[in-house]
């Protein structure tokens, strides 16, 4: 029930309550024009991380895709819809089912490999290098109030963070160092390093 409530609140926020100018969205215009230098580095880092989060969810969910609904369509849809796409699966699809793992063995080997996990971590920390250009929390706050894209993606980011922790707790309740999952984006990947191959 909590997931469907959060989903409805997120939809309501995006449609009716997200701040932003009524006219053109300055950040969206810069994104569409490819004018990355006009975007604050913190805004850009959060924006890029929304493309990395789905890879983390693909890794977690496809390694454990035995639930009532297949996880892969929702994981793929997260590249475009973020938490908007994942919350329905957490709300309705994450129910136990007497079935085997859906994920093909070749893909499972990749998702369980240390090489894949290291690649994810490289992407995550590579994205953080954007912040070395200098960033301003005040500029992010201004962008949040002026751009509906920034305001919605910020809320989406925090929900994805929460969902990633929920996924680790759901599928790996007994793994060591589970508290690492609270480290945004990188944490769940670090937790998977402690998961045995048969899990």
Automatic annotation (TrEMBL):
Membrane spanning stretches: 42-62, 74-93, 113-132, 144-164, 179-195
Protein name: DUF2834 domain-containing protein
Record keywords, A-Z: Membrane, Transmembrane, Transmembrane helix
Organism in which the protein naturally occurs: Jeotgalibacillus alimentarius
